[in-house]
């Protein structure tokens, strides 16, 4: 999936990111908070901060512990809530860590790793 669009509203608490299939036409929105939306937007625009932000910190911790963020995976949609996993390669083993999709996407943009969505989630949100 590609991060297609970030919609930031200063008058609403809920922000929206749009994900679109890399090689397809399906797309869907995810509602996120202002902090996560701003973090993702800063990374997309290549804006640096003087000190590491939370998503920079997590990426640094993964690396310092000998791991590598392989990708992120939006794995489930339950009662209008998305669930995601950070998939970290460490010592040849794949470790999955539960994560909010907004944080996962911010990390994917930070570490420049792929974003994947489970086919059943795509089918549900795209009405298939």
Summarize the helices and strands and which ones pair or pack.
Blueprint: E1 2-7, E2 15-20, E3 27-32, H1 34-44, H2 54-64, E4 67-78, E5 81-90, E6 93-99, H3 101-111, E7 115-117, H4 119-125
Parallel strand pairs: 4-7
Antiparallel strand pairs: 1-2, 2-3, 4-5, 5-6
Helix pairs in contact: 1-3, 2-3
Quick overview:
This protein is an alpha+beta fold. Helix content is 31%, strand content 39%.
Low-confidence stretches: none
**Radius of gyration from the alpha-carbon trace, in angstroms:** 15 Å
Major β-sheet annotation: 4 strands, mixed
Roughly how many Å apart are the termini?
Answer: 17 Å
Domains counted in the coordinates: how many? Answer: 1
Kindly provide the name of the CATH class.
Alpha Beta
Q: Which fold name corresponds to the CATH topology?
A: Bifunctional nuclease domain
Strand order of the largest sheet: 6-5-4-7
Q: Could you tell me the number of beta strands?
A: 7
Strand content: 35-45%
The arrangement of helices and strands along the chain is EEEHHEEEHEH
Please state the average pLDDT score: 92
Count of individual helical segments: 4
Helical coverage, percent range: 25-40%
């Amino acid at each position: 999936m590609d991060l297609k669009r970030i919609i930031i509203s200063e008058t609403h608490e809920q922000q929206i990111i749009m994900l679109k299939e890399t090689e397809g036409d399906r797309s869907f929105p995810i509602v996120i908070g202002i902090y996560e939306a701003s973090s993702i937007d800063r990374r997309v625009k290549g804006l640096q901060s003087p000190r590491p932000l939370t998503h920079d910190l997590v990426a640094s911790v993964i690396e310092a512990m000998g791991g590598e963020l392989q990708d992120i995976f939006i794995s489930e949609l339950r009662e209008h809530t998305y669930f995601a996993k950070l998939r970290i390669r460490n010592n040849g083993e794949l470790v999955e860590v539960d994560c909010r999709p907004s944080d996962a996407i911010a990390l994917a943009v930070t570490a420049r790793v792929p974003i994947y969505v489970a086919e059943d989630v795509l089918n549900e949100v795209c009405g298939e």
